[in-house]
Write a structure and sequence with these properties.
11 helices; elongated; alpha/beta; 369 residues
Length: 369
């Protein structure tokens, strides 16, 4: 065989390996975003896929919350002896410290992994040194694969760490003319079933759901996360209500038996910053704000909304409750103008018309990122 032919085969082999590793990293990112993982202030969402030398998937794993095995350890446990000689594809640089669990670097070395590919370097100084430790043990290491996608996955963690408060996603449903309820107060259902299922998917990505006392007193929501068959997920977010108003103990938000033991808390304040400070002290990273127009206006006015998710239903009411209360805006030039980051049409289910989901980022947050 000529030298050019040998060179071509080497290049093709490298190309095949790169393609397999990219595919594995995309799968690891999906695993990292698995719904229902409880978070605390120092917890990251991480996914891991172990690849055999021929590019086949040997095992996969993801971090399931504080005190549980990290993604690498979870995948190694599934693989057992088959882990020897594999490539570990991980969304975050393996940690090199002992916290609630042992160092991932030592687990990878002991398992005989031959190569590690990770997307994002760990900026946490406590966990640093993973790459150096792996290379010192003779493991081939490559970094930066799909780093931007991995960084986006960590937006919640980064903001919580920087601002010392939870990331806030405000979700609401509205008609074409901006109504969240009819004139008689009825709001079930403004959005279609597809939007409601999507809402539960988004709820599952958060560790706290927050409403105001009026919502609890009037609507008596259960505030659980449920699957497509309307069954509660095994892991539930904290159910939080804020406001100074006393609430009856028979409200469903306070009944843990309705949510598989999901905890709840009454934050006796009307100040969004104070409420978020209390939640952060409870190790909460991501708040899903589902309160009414008054609560939404309070968070917007305080500049404490980091993401907006809107479901727009294709009908008109002409009158009724606005999706958000008075923001003190009197002229079009002062309008609140978030940046649109995603527009998705959710196909109608059960004969319903489609809803449109908009994901938006407030201007100040967009400028900082």
């Amino acid at each position: 065989m000529s030298t050019p032919d040998r060179r071509r085969r080497t290049t093709m082999h490298h190309h095949d390996r790169a393609a397999a590793e990219e595919s594995a990293m995309r799968r690891a990112l999906v695993l990292a975003a698995t719904p229902g993982v409880p978070m605390v202030a120092d917890t990251r969402r991480v996914g891991c896929v172990l690849l055999a030398p021929d590019g086949g998937v040997v095992a996969e794993g993801h971090h399931r919350g504080p005190g549980t095995p990290h993604a690498e350890a979870a995948a190694l446990d599934v693989a057992g002896e088959r882990a020897r000689g594999t490539t570990a594809v991980v969304t975050l640089e393996p940690c090199h410290h002992t916290g609630r669990t042992g160092p991932c670097t030592e687990a990878l070395i002991a398992a005989g992994v031959s190569r590690v590919v990770y997307a994002e370097s760990d900026a946490n100084p406590v966990a640093a040194g993973g790459r150096a430790r792996l290379e010192a043990a003779g493991i081939d290491v490559d970094a930066g694969l799909l780093a931007d996608e991995a960084a986006a996955l960590a937006d919640v963690y980064r903001l919580a760490a920087r601002e010392q408060r939870p990331f806030v996603t405000w979700k609401f449903a509205t008609t074409l003319d901006g109504r969240s309820a009819a004139a008689d107060g009825t709001s079930r259902w403004v959005s279609g079933r597809a939007a409601r299922l999507d809402t539960h998917r988004l709820r599952a990505r958060c560790d706290t759901m927050l409403v105001g006392t009026n919502t609890v007193a009037v609507d008596d929501p259960q505030l659980t996360v449920r699957d497509a068959e309307d069954r509660p997920l095994a892991t539930q977010p904290l159910r939080a209500v804020m406001g100074e108003r006393d609430l009856s103990s028979d409200r469903r938000i306070f009944d843990a038996s309705l949510a598989g033991g999901a905890p709840s808390v009454h934050l006796r304040t009307r100040d969004p910053a104070a409420a978020l400070a209390e939640l952060f002290a409870l190790d909460r990273q991501h708040v899903f704000l589902e309160g009414g127009p008054t609560l939404a206006a309070a968070f917007l006015t305080a500049g404490l909304v980091d993401e907006v998710v809107v479901y727009v239903a294709p009908f008109l009411l002409g009158a009724g409750r606005s999706a958000v209360a008075d923001l003190g805006i009197t002229t079009i030039a002062d309008a609140f103008r978030p940046v649109v980051t995603d527009v998705t049409v959710l196909p109608g289910l059960d004969g319903e018309e489609p809803d449109v989901r908009l994901v938006l980022t407030p201007p100040s947050t967009h400028e900082e990122s």
